[in-house]
Amino acid sequence: MRSVLLLLLSALAAASAWIPVEDWESGEVTASVGEEGQCVCHVYLPDTTFPADRMEHMHQVTKDLMLEVDIQIKKMVSYDAKLKVYLKELKDLSIRVVMLESSADKYVKLDFELLRVELREFEALVLQLRDSFNSSSPVFDSLFAEIRNMSLIVDQLETFDQSNLLVIRIEFAKLQKKLEDCQKEQEFVKPDIGNCNHTGILSLSKPMVLQINAHLNAGYQYGGWGKDSKPVRGSESMYFYGAYTGPAVHDFYLYSDYDKLILRSASKHHDIPSGWEGTGNNYIVHGNSIYYQINSPFSMSKLNLTSSKYEYRVIPAASQSFSYSYSPNQNLDFAADENGLWVLYASEENLGKIVIAKIDEKSFGIQDVWKTGAYKQLVGNAFMACGVLYATRSVDLNTEEIFYAYDTRTKEERHLKIHFQKFQEKYTNLDYNPSDQKLYMYNNGYYVSYSVRFDRE
Ligand SMILES: *[C@@H]1O[C@H](CO)[C@@H](O)[C@H](O)[C@H]1NC(C)=O
Ligand SMILES: *[C@@H]1O[C@H](CO)[C@@H](O)[C@H](O)[C@H]1NC(C)=O
Ligand SMILES: *[C@@H]1O[C@H](CO)[C@@H](O)[C@H](O)[C@H]1NC(C)=O
Ligand SMILES: *[C@@H]1O[C@H](CO)[C@@H](O)[C@H](O)[C@H]1NC(C)=O
Protein backbone atom coordinates (compact mmCIF):
# COMPACT_ATOMS: atom_id res chain seq x y z
CA MET A 1 0.00 0.00 0.00
CA ARG A 2 1.21 3.55 -0.72
CA SER A 3 -0.18 6.49 1.13
CA VAL A 4 -0.36 9.67 -0.87
CA LEU A 5 -0.29 13.13 0.57
CA LEU A 6 -1.38 15.99 -1.60
CA LEU A 7 -0.53 19.52 -0.80
CA LEU A 8 -2.55 21.99 -2.74
CA LEU A 9 -1.19 25.46 -2.71
CA SER A 10 -2.43 28.36 -4.72
CA ALA A 11 0.25 29.97 -6.78
CA LEU A 12 -0.03 33.43 -8.15
CA ALA A 13 1.30 32.46 -11.53
CA ALA A 14 1.03 29.16 -13.29
CA ALA A 15 4.37 27.50 -12.97
CA SER A 16 5.83 24.28 -11.78
CA ALA A 17 9.57 24.71 -11.57
CA TRP A 18 9.43 25.85 -8.00
CA ILE A 19 11.61 23.24 -6.38
CA PRO A 20 15.23 22.45 -7.20
CA VAL A 21 14.73 19.46 -9.47
CA GLU A 22 17.76 17.54 -8.33
CA ASP A 23 16.51 17.28 -4.79
CA TRP A 24 13.26 15.71 -5.81
CA GLU A 25 14.03 13.27 -8.52
CA SER A 26 14.37 10.35 -6.13
CA GLY A 27 10.76 9.42 -6.78
CA GLU A 28 9.62 10.20 -3.25
CA VAL A 29 8.28 13.63 -4.03
CA THR A 30 7.01 14.99 -7.33
CA ALA A 31 5.51 18.28 -8.33
CA SER A 32 3.12 19.38 -11.06
CA VAL A 33 0.70 22.13 -11.92
CA GLY A 34 -3.01 21.69 -11.30
CA GLU A 35 -5.82 22.82 -13.52
CA GLU A 36 -6.08 26.25 -11.95
CA GLY A 37 -2.38 26.87 -12.22
CA GLN A 38 -1.77 25.96 -8.62
CA CYS A 39 1.27 23.99 -7.49
CA VAL A 40 0.49 20.38 -6.59
CA CYS A 41 2.97 18.41 -4.58
CA HIS A 42 2.74 14.61 -4.26
CA VAL A 43 4.60 12.88 -1.48
CA TYR A 44 4.73 9.08 -1.83
CA LEU A 45 5.37 7.03 1.25
CA PRO A 46 6.53 3.63 0.13
CA ASP A 47 5.28 1.51 2.93
CA THR A 48 3.21 -1.34 4.28
CA THR A 49 2.48 -0.55 7.91
CA PHE A 50 2.03 2.86 9.49
CA PRO A 51 4.84 3.54 11.94
CA ALA A 52 4.60 6.61 14.08
CA ASP A 53 8.15 7.79 13.50
CA ARG A 54 7.45 8.07 9.77
CA MET A 55 4.37 10.09 10.48
CA GLU A 56 6.52 12.40 12.58
CA HIS A 57 9.05 12.63 9.77
CA MET A 58 6.28 13.34 7.29
CA HIS A 59 5.04 16.19 9.41
CA GLN A 60 8.50 17.70 9.23
CA VAL A 61 8.69 17.19 5.46
CA THR A 62 5.30 18.85 5.10
CA LYS A 63 6.40 21.82 7.10
CA ASP A 64 9.59 22.14 5.09
CA LEU A 65 7.68 21.86 1.84
CA MET A 66 5.29 24.60 2.86
CA LEU A 67 8.23 26.86 3.59
CA GLU A 68 9.89 25.96 0.29
CA VAL A 69 6.67 26.59 -1.65
CA ASP A 70 6.31 29.93 0.01
CA ILE A 71 9.82 30.94 -1.00
CA GLN A 72 9.35 29.70 -4.55
CA ILE A 73 6.03 31.48 -5.02
CA LYS A 74 7.73 34.72 -4.11
CA LYS A 75 10.40 33.95 -6.72
CA MET A 76 7.78 33.19 -9.35
CA VAL A 77 6.12 36.51 -8.81
CA SER A 78 9.44 38.22 -9.38
CA TYR A 79 10.03 36.19 -12.60
CA ASP A 80 6.74 37.29 -13.92
CA ALA A 81 7.70 40.89 -13.27
CA LYS A 82 11.07 40.35 -14.93
CA LEU A 83 9.57 38.77 -18.01
CA LYS A 84 7.35 41.80 -18.38
CA VAL A 85 10.44 44.00 -18.24
CA TYR A 86 12.14 41.93 -20.96
CA LEU A 87 9.06 42.16 -23.04
CA LYS A 88 9.10 45.91 -22.78
CA GLU A 89 12.77 45.98 -23.74
CA LEU A 90 12.08 43.86 -26.78
CA LYS A 91 9.35 46.30 -27.76
CA ASP A 92 11.80 49.17 -27.38
CA LEU A 93 14.20 47.22 -29.51
CA SER A 94 11.61 46.85 -32.26
CA ILE A 95 11.06 50.59 -32.20
CA ARG A 96 14.78 51.15 -32.51
CA VAL A 97 14.99 48.76 -35.44
CA VAL A 98 12.26 50.73 -37.16
CA MET A 99 14.19 53.92 -36.52
CA LEU A 100 17.34 52.38 -37.91
CA GLU A 101 15.42 51.34 -40.97
CA SER A 102 15.02 54.97 -41.87
CA SER A 103 18.64 55.87 -41.21
CA ALA A 104 20.49 52.61 -41.73
CA ASP A 105 23.24 54.06 -43.86
CA LYS A 106 24.70 55.60 -40.73
CA TYR A 107 25.79 52.21 -39.49
CA VAL A 108 28.54 49.92 -40.55
CA LYS A 109 28.11 46.57 -42.20
CA LEU A 110 25.68 44.11 -40.63
CA ASP A 111 25.87 40.35 -40.71
CA PHE A 112 22.24 39.43 -41.32
CA GLU A 113 22.91 35.72 -41.03
CA LEU A 114 24.32 36.21 -37.58
CA LEU A 115 21.34 38.30 -36.61
CA ARG A 116 19.11 35.41 -37.64
CA VAL A 117 21.21 32.94 -35.66
CA GLU A 118 20.79 35.13 -32.61
CA LEU A 119 17.07 35.43 -33.13
CA ARG A 120 16.81 31.66 -33.37
CA GLU A 121 18.83 31.31 -30.19
CA PHE A 122 16.61 33.84 -28.53
CA GLU A 123 13.54 31.91 -29.60
CA ALA A 124 15.01 28.66 -28.26
CA LEU A 125 15.69 30.35 -24.94
CA VAL A 126 12.14 31.58 -24.64
CA LEU A 127 10.92 28.11 -25.58
CA GLN A 128 13.05 26.52 -22.90
CA LEU A 129 11.86 29.05 -20.39
CA ARG A 130 8.24 28.39 -21.29
CA ASP A 131 8.68 24.62 -21.04
CA SER A 132 10.25 24.78 -17.65
CA PHE A 133 7.50 27.07 -16.42
CA ASN A 134 5.06 24.55 -17.94
CA SER A 135 2.78 27.41 -18.67
CA SER A 136 0.88 28.90 -21.56
CA SER A 137 1.13 32.38 -20.10
CA PRO A 138 0.33 35.16 -22.60
CA VAL A 139 3.72 36.67 -21.76
CA PHE A 140 5.36 33.93 -23.81
CA ASP A 141 2.99 34.38 -26.73
CA SER A 142 3.91 38.05 -26.84
CA LEU A 143 7.60 37.22 -26.68
CA PHE A 144 7.22 34.85 -29.64
CA ALA A 145 5.24 37.47 -31.54
CA GLU A 146 8.02 39.99 -30.92
CA ILE A 147 10.66 37.57 -32.13
CA ARG A 148 8.70 36.82 -35.30
CA ASN A 149 8.32 40.54 -35.88
CA MET A 150 12.05 41.06 -35.48
CA SER A 151 12.79 38.27 -37.97
CA LEU A 152 10.54 39.94 -40.50
CA ILE A 153 12.24 43.27 -39.98
CA VAL A 154 15.64 41.65 -40.44
CA ASP A 155 14.45 40.16 -43.73
CA GLN A 156 13.17 43.53 -44.89
CA LEU A 157 16.37 45.27 -43.88
CA GLU A 158 18.42 42.80 -45.82
CA THR A 159 16.57 43.56 -49.02
CA PHE A 160 17.71 47.18 -48.60
CA ASP A 161 21.23 45.75 -48.70
CA GLN A 162 22.58 48.34 -46.33
CA SER A 163 25.53 47.84 -44.27
CA ASN A 164 25.89 47.00 -40.72
CA LEU A 165 23.53 47.60 -37.90
CA LEU A 166 26.02 46.51 -35.31
CA VAL A 167 24.03 48.34 -32.69
CA ILE A 168 21.07 46.00 -33.01
CA ARG A 169 23.33 43.00 -32.83
CA ILE A 170 24.68 44.18 -29.51
CA GLU A 171 21.17 44.80 -28.24
CA PHE A 172 20.24 41.25 -29.16
CA ALA A 173 23.20 39.83 -27.33
CA LYS A 174 22.32 41.85 -24.24
CA LEU A 175 18.77 40.61 -24.33
CA GLN A 176 20.03 37.11 -24.70
CA LYS A 177 22.17 37.51 -21.63
CA LYS A 178 19.18 38.75 -19.68
CA LEU A 179 17.15 35.72 -20.62
CA GLU A 180 20.08 33.55 -19.73
CA ASP A 181 20.22 35.19 -16.30
CA CYS A 182 16.51 34.59 -15.91
CA GLN A 183 17.11 30.96 -16.78
CA LYS A 184 19.92 30.69 -14.31
CA GLU A 185 17.78 32.08 -11.56
CA GLN A 186 15.12 29.65 -12.54
CA GLU A 187 17.51 26.80 -11.91
CA PHE A 188 17.80 28.57 -8.58
CA VAL A 189 20.94 29.10 -6.66
CA LYS A 190 23.29 26.26 -7.38
CA PRO A 191 24.39 25.24 -3.93
CA ASP A 192 26.65 22.61 -5.45
CA ILE A 193 29.35 24.81 -7.02
CA GLY A 194 32.60 23.22 -5.88
CA ASN A 195 30.85 20.08 -4.60
CA CYS A 196 32.23 16.87 -6.10
CA ASN A 197 29.93 14.48 -4.25
CA HIS A 198 28.55 12.93 -7.47
CA THR A 199 29.36 10.09 -9.82
CA GLY A 200 30.34 12.24 -12.79
CA ILE A 201 28.76 14.09 -15.70
CA LEU A 202 25.19 13.08 -16.51
CA SER A 203 24.43 15.42 -19.41
CA LEU A 204 25.15 18.76 -21.06
CA SER A 205 22.60 21.46 -21.85
CA LYS A 206 21.88 22.69 -25.35
CA PRO A 207 24.66 24.90 -26.70
CA MET A 208 24.34 28.58 -25.81
CA VAL A 209 25.72 30.48 -28.77
CA LEU A 210 26.79 33.86 -27.54
CA GLN A 211 28.02 35.47 -30.73
CA ILE A 212 30.78 35.48 -33.26
CA ASN A 213 34.28 36.36 -32.04
CA ALA A 214 35.42 39.92 -31.32
CA HIS A 215 37.11 40.17 -34.71
CA LEU A 216 33.64 39.68 -36.24
CA ASN A 217 35.31 37.23 -38.55
CA ALA A 218 34.35 33.57 -38.87
CA GLY A 219 37.74 33.05 -40.51
CA TYR A 220 39.33 33.37 -37.08
CA GLN A 221 38.77 29.68 -36.45
CA TYR A 222 41.69 29.01 -34.12
CA GLY A 223 41.16 30.41 -30.67
CA GLY A 224 39.60 30.20 -27.27
CA TRP A 225 37.43 32.11 -24.85
CA GLY A 226 36.15 31.75 -21.31
CA LYS A 227 36.45 32.96 -17.74
CA ASP A 228 39.18 32.68 -15.14
CA SER A 229 38.66 29.37 -13.32
CA LYS A 230 40.12 30.75 -10.07
CA PRO A 231 39.61 34.50 -10.31
CA VAL A 232 41.50 36.85 -8.01
CA ARG A 233 39.40 39.31 -6.04
CA GLY A 234 37.89 41.95 -8.29
CA SER A 235 38.29 39.88 -11.49
CA GLU A 236 35.37 37.52 -10.96
CA SER A 237 33.49 38.82 -14.02
CA MET A 238 36.49 38.89 -16.35
CA TYR A 239 36.40 37.11 -19.75
CA PHE A 240 39.32 36.26 -22.03
CA TYR A 241 39.50 35.73 -25.77
CA GLY A 242 42.12 35.12 -28.39
CA ALA A 243 41.82 33.95 -32.00
CA TYR A 244 43.72 33.80 -35.27
CA THR A 245 43.43 32.48 -38.79
CA GLY A 246 46.07 29.81 -38.04
CA PRO A 247 46.99 27.73 -34.98
CA ALA A 248 49.73 30.14 -33.80
CA VAL A 249 48.91 32.19 -30.68
CA HIS A 250 49.92 35.87 -30.93
CA ASP A 251 47.79 37.81 -28.46
CA PHE A 252 45.04 37.74 -25.84
CA TYR A 253 42.20 40.13 -25.05
CA LEU A 254 40.68 40.62 -21.59
CA TYR A 255 37.20 42.02 -20.93
CA SER A 256 36.23 43.28 -17.50
CA ASP A 257 32.73 41.77 -17.71
CA TYR A 258 30.13 40.19 -19.95
CA ASP A 259 28.81 43.43 -21.43
CA LYS A 260 32.32 44.50 -22.41
CA LEU A 261 32.84 41.12 -24.08
CA ILE A 262 29.67 41.60 -26.11
CA LEU A 263 30.62 45.17 -26.97
CA ARG A 264 34.11 43.93 -27.93
CA SER A 265 35.57 46.57 -25.66
CA ALA A 266 38.71 44.99 -24.21
CA SER A 267 40.19 46.28 -20.97
CA LYS A 268 43.57 44.86 -21.93
CA HIS A 269 45.32 43.54 -25.02
CA HIS A 270 48.41 41.39 -24.46
CA ASP A 271 50.54 41.24 -27.57
CA ILE A 272 52.85 38.31 -26.93
CA PRO A 273 56.49 39.42 -27.29
CA SER A 274 58.80 37.72 -29.76
CA GLY A 275 60.08 34.39 -28.44
CA TRP A 276 56.95 33.74 -26.37
CA GLU A 277 54.46 33.09 -29.18
CA GLY A 278 52.22 30.12 -28.57
CA THR A 279 50.38 27.49 -30.54
CA GLY A 280 47.53 25.02 -30.34
CA ASN A 281 44.89 27.23 -28.66
CA ASN A 282 44.28 24.97 -25.65
CA TYR A 283 44.99 27.74 -23.18
CA ILE A 284 43.13 28.73 -20.04
CA VAL A 285 43.15 31.56 -17.51
CA HIS A 286 43.60 30.40 -13.93
CA GLY A 287 44.51 32.55 -10.92
CA ASN A 288 44.90 35.60 -13.20
CA SER A 289 47.54 33.81 -15.30
CA ILE A 290 47.28 32.51 -18.85
CA TYR A 291 48.69 29.02 -19.37
CA TYR A 292 49.48 28.10 -22.98
CA GLN A 293 51.82 26.03 -25.14
CA ILE A 294 54.97 27.46 -26.74
CA ASN A 295 57.15 25.69 -29.30
CA SER A 296 60.66 27.00 -28.70
CA PRO A 297 61.46 25.38 -26.46
CA PHE A 298 58.43 23.05 -26.62
CA SER A 299 57.01 23.71 -23.16
CA MET A 300 54.25 25.05 -20.94
CA SER A 301 54.20 28.82 -20.74
CA LYS A 302 52.61 31.09 -18.17
CA LEU A 303 51.80 34.76 -18.58
CA ASN A 304 51.08 36.25 -15.16
CA LEU A 305 48.48 38.94 -15.87
CA THR A 306 49.20 40.63 -12.55
CA SER A 307 52.94 41.06 -13.11
CA SER A 308 52.92 40.70 -16.96
CA LYS A 309 55.84 38.25 -16.50
CA TYR A 310 56.36 35.18 -18.70
CA GLU A 311 57.76 31.82 -17.54
CA TYR A 312 58.10 28.38 -19.10
CA ARG A 313 58.60 24.75 -18.03
CA VAL A 314 59.61 21.84 -20.28
CA ILE A 315 57.77 18.53 -19.80
CA PRO A 316 60.35 16.00 -21.05
CA ALA A 317 57.82 13.17 -21.50
CA ALA A 318 55.33 15.21 -23.58
CA SER A 319 55.36 14.51 -27.30
CA GLN A 320 54.80 16.94 -30.17
CA SER A 321 53.69 14.10 -32.47
CA PHE A 322 50.08 13.87 -31.32
CA SER A 323 47.30 16.45 -31.64
CA TYR A 324 43.53 16.36 -31.20
CA SER A 325 41.50 15.51 -34.29
CA TYR A 326 40.13 18.99 -35.11
CA SER A 327 43.29 21.08 -35.06
CA PRO A 328 47.08 20.73 -35.45
CA ASN A 329 49.80 21.53 -32.87
CA GLN A 330 47.54 20.79 -29.90
CA ASN A 331 50.16 19.01 -27.83
CA LEU A 332 49.61 20.58 -24.41
CA ASP A 333 46.01 21.08 -23.29
CA PHE A 334 45.56 23.07 -20.07
CA ALA A 335 42.59 22.40 -17.79
CA ALA A 336 41.30 23.52 -14.40
CA ASP A 337 38.71 22.02 -12.11
CA GLU A 338 37.67 21.85 -8.44
CA ASN A 339 41.05 20.23 -7.68
CA GLY A 340 43.29 22.79 -9.38
CA LEU A 341 45.39 23.05 -12.51
CA TRP A 342 46.19 20.27 -14.99
CA VAL A 343 47.92 19.74 -18.31
CA LEU A 344 46.99 16.94 -20.73
CA TYR A 345 49.40 15.60 -23.36
CA ALA A 346 50.29 12.38 -25.17
CA SER A 347 53.65 10.66 -24.76
CA GLU A 348 55.65 8.20 -26.84
CA GLU A 349 55.98 6.06 -23.74
CA ASN A 350 52.17 5.87 -23.41
CA LEU A 351 51.96 5.06 -27.16
CA GLY A 352 50.20 8.28 -28.15
CA LYS A 353 47.56 7.99 -25.46
CA ILE A 354 46.68 10.91 -23.19
CA VAL A 355 48.62 11.46 -19.96
CA ILE A 356 47.09 13.61 -17.22
CA ALA A 357 49.56 15.74 -15.26
CA LYS A 358 48.73 17.77 -12.15
CA ILE A 359 50.50 21.12 -12.06
CA ASP A 360 51.77 22.52 -8.78
CA GLU A 361 50.77 26.16 -9.09
CA LYS A 362 53.46 27.54 -6.78
CA SER A 363 56.47 25.94 -8.45
CA PHE A 364 54.82 25.63 -11.91
CA GLY A 365 56.09 22.04 -11.96
CA ILE A 366 54.45 18.63 -12.51
CA GLN A 367 53.44 17.04 -9.23
CA ASP A 368 51.81 13.78 -10.38
CA VAL A 369 50.87 11.91 -13.59
CA TRP A 370 48.22 9.38 -14.66
CA LYS A 371 48.26 7.39 -17.91
CA THR A 372 44.90 7.05 -19.63
CA GLY A 373 43.81 4.71 -22.42
CA ALA A 374 42.46 7.44 -24.73
CA TYR A 375 44.43 7.61 -27.99
CA LYS A 376 44.87 11.35 -28.46
CA GLN A 377 44.47 11.58 -32.24
CA LEU A 378 40.95 10.08 -32.03
CA VAL A 379 39.92 12.64 -29.42
CA GLY A 380 38.24 15.95 -30.38
CA ASN A 381 39.26 17.65 -27.15
CA ALA A 382 39.43 16.91 -23.43
CA PHE A 383 38.78 18.63 -20.12
CA MET A 384 38.89 17.92 -16.38
CA ALA A 385 35.99 18.12 -13.88
CA CYS A 386 36.29 16.99 -10.25
CA GLY A 387 39.56 15.17 -10.93
CA VAL A 388 38.09 13.22 -13.87
CA LEU A 389 39.31 13.56 -17.45
CA TYR A 390 36.54 13.62 -20.07
CA ALA A 391 37.37 13.09 -23.75
CA THR A 392 35.09 13.97 -26.68
CA ARG A 393 34.79 12.83 -30.27
CA SER A 394 32.55 13.51 -33.24
CA VAL A 395 29.36 11.53 -33.86
CA ASP A 396 28.21 13.54 -36.90
CA LEU A 397 28.29 17.14 -38.17
CA ASN A 398 25.90 18.35 -35.47
CA THR A 399 26.56 15.91 -32.67
CA GLU A 400 29.51 15.34 -30.38
CA GLU A 401 29.87 12.86 -27.54
CA ILE A 402 31.83 12.52 -24.33
CA PHE A 403 32.97 8.96 -24.90
CA TYR A 404 35.69 8.41 -22.33
CA ALA A 405 36.41 9.27 -18.70
CA TYR A 406 39.41 8.63 -16.46
CA ASP A 407 39.16 9.17 -12.70
CA THR A 408 42.51 10.23 -11.18
CA ARG A 409 41.25 9.31 -7.69
CA THR A 410 40.34 5.67 -8.43
CA LYS A 411 42.60 5.28 -11.53
CA GLU A 412 39.58 3.76 -13.30
CA GLU A 413 38.48 4.45 -16.87
CA ARG A 414 34.91 4.39 -18.18
CA HIS A 415 33.35 4.43 -21.63
CA LEU A 416 30.47 6.88 -21.93
CA LYS A 417 27.90 7.99 -24.50
CA ILE A 418 26.99 11.50 -23.44
CA HIS A 419 25.80 13.18 -26.62
CA PHE A 420 25.59 16.94 -27.06
CA GLN A 421 24.74 19.30 -29.90
CA LYS A 422 27.33 21.27 -31.79
CA PHE A 423 26.60 24.63 -33.33
CA GLN A 424 29.39 24.24 -35.90
CA GLU A 425 31.41 21.17 -36.79
CA LYS A 426 34.87 21.88 -35.38
CA TYR A 427 36.27 23.46 -32.28
CA THR A 428 39.73 24.31 -31.04
CA ASN A 429 39.16 24.97 -27.34
CA LEU A 430 36.91 23.17 -24.85
CA ASP A 431 37.27 23.68 -21.12
CA TYR A 432 35.26 23.18 -17.97
CA ASN A 433 35.09 26.06 -15.52
CA PRO A 434 34.49 25.00 -11.89
CA SER A 435 33.36 28.49 -10.84
CA ASP A 436 30.11 28.21 -12.82
CA GLN A 437 30.08 24.51 -13.81
CA LYS A 438 29.97 25.40 -17.49
CA LEU A 439 31.87 24.19 -20.52
CA TYR A 440 33.32 26.89 -22.78
CA MET A 441 33.88 26.05 -26.43
CA TYR A 442 35.43 28.05 -29.27
CA ASN A 443 33.40 26.61 -32.11
CA ASN A 444 34.55 27.62 -35.62
CA GLY A 445 34.83 31.26 -34.59
CA TYR A 446 31.81 31.40 -32.28
CA TYR A 447 31.59 31.68 -28.50
CA VAL A 448 29.56 28.68 -27.27
CA SER A 449 28.91 27.38 -23.75
CA TYR A 450 27.10 24.47 -22.09
CA SER A 451 25.77 23.91 -18.57
CA VAL A 452 27.07 20.68 -17.05
CA ARG A 453 24.73 18.44 -15.10
CA PHE A 454 26.31 16.00 -12.66
CA ASP A 455 24.84 12.69 -11.53
CA ARG A 456 24.00 13.19 -7.85
CA GLU A 457 21.77 10.06 -7.77
C1 LIG B 1 2.56 20.33 -17.02
O1 LIG B 1 1.19 20.58 -16.78
C2 LIG B 1 0.30 19.55 -17.20
C3 LIG B 1 -1.11 19.97 -16.86
O2 LIG B 1 -1.27 21.34 -17.02
C4 LIG B 1 0.65 18.23 -16.52
O3 LIG B 1 -0.17 17.19 -17.01
C5 LIG B 1 2.11 17.89 -16.78
O4 LIG B 1 2.47 16.72 -16.06
C6 LIG B 1 3.00 19.04 -16.34
N1 LIG B 1 4.40 18.75 -16.65
C7 LIG B 1 5.39 18.92 -15.78
C8 LIG B 1 6.76 18.60 -16.29
O5 LIG B 1 5.20 19.33 -14.64
C1 LIG C 1 5.13 44.19 -35.42
O1 LIG C 1 5.62 45.33 -36.09
C2 LIG C 1 4.62 46.19 -36.60
C3 LIG C 1 5.29 47.35 -37.28
O2 LIG C 1 6.44 46.94 -37.97
C4 LIG C 1 3.71 46.69 -35.48
O3 LIG C 1 2.66 47.46 -36.01
C5 LIG C 1 3.14 45.51 -34.72
O4 LIG C 1 2.40 45.97 -33.61
C6 LIG C 1 4.25 44.62 -34.25
N1 LIG C 1 3.71 43.44 -33.60
C7 LIG C 1 4.03 43.13 -32.36
C8 LIG C 1 3.43 41.90 -31.84
O5 LIG C 1 4.79 43.82 -31.70
C1 LIG D 1 27.20 12.50 -0.69
O1 LIG D 1 25.88 12.28 -1.21
C2 LIG D 1 25.25 11.13 -0.66
C3 LIG D 1 23.91 10.93 -1.37
O2 LIG D 1 23.55 12.00 -2.16
C4 LIG D 1 25.06 11.32 0.85
O3 LIG D 1 24.45 10.18 1.40
C5 LIG D 1 26.42 11.55 1.49
O4 LIG D 1 26.28 11.83 2.86
C6 LIG D 1 27.15 12.71 0.81
N1 LIG D 1 28.51 12.80 1.34
C7 LIG D 1 29.05 13.95 1.68
C8 LIG D 1 30.46 13.87 2.16
O5 LIG D 1 28.46 15.00 1.61
C1 LIG E 1 51.58 36.65 -10.37
O1 LIG E 1 52.34 37.73 -9.94
C2 LIG E 1 51.91 38.27 -8.70
C3 LIG E 1 52.70 39.54 -8.43
O2 LIG E 1 54.08 39.32 -8.64
C4 LIG E 1 52.09 37.21 -7.62
O3 LIG E 1 51.65 37.71 -6.37
C5 LIG E 1 51.28 35.98 -7.99
O4 LIG E 1 51.49 34.95 -7.05
C6 LIG E 1 51.64 35.49 -9.37
N1 LIG E 1 50.70 34.44 -9.75
C7 LIG E 1 51.07 33.29 -10.29
C8 LIG E 1 49.99 32.31 -10.58
O5 LIG E 1 52.22 33.03 -10.58
Write the layout of secondary structure elements.
Blueprint: E1 2-9, H1 21-24, E2 29-33, E3 39-46, H2 52-102, H3 112-133, H4 138-160, H5 166-186, E4 201-204, E5 208-212, E6 222-227, E7 239-244, E8 248-249, E9 251-255, H6 258-263, E10 268-271, E11 278-286, E12 289-295, E13 298-304, E14 309-313, E15 333-337, E16 340-346, E17 353-360, E18 365-375, E19 381-385, E20 388-396, E21 399-407, E22 412-421, E23 427-433, E24 438-443, E25 446-454
Antiparallel strand pairs: 1-3, 2-3, 4-25, 5-25, 6-7, 7-9, 8-11, 9-10, 11-12, 12-13, 13-14, 15-16, 16-17, 17-18, 19-20, 20-21, 21-22, 23-24, 24-25
Helix pairs in contact: 2-4, 2-5, 3-4, 3-5
Bound molecules: 2-acetamido-2-deoxy-beta-D-glucopyranose (4 copies).
One 2-acetamido-2-deoxy-beta-D-glucopyranose binds at residues 16, 32-33, 134.
Protein name: Olfactomedin-4
InterPro entries: Olfac-like_dom, Olfactomedin-like_domain
Keywords: Secreted, Signal
Q: What number of structural domains do the residues give? A: 2
Mean pLDDT: 78
Report the count of strand segments.
25
The fraction of residues assigned to DSSP E strands is 35-45%
Overall CATH class of the largest domain: Mainly Beta
> What is the share of helical residues?
25-40%
Q: Which architecture of the largest domain does the CATH hierarchy give at level 2?
A: 6 Propeller
Distance between the termini: 25 Å
Describe the largest sheet: 5 strands, antiparallel
Bound molecules: 2-acetamido-2-deoxy-beta-D-glucopyranose
Overall geometry comes to globular
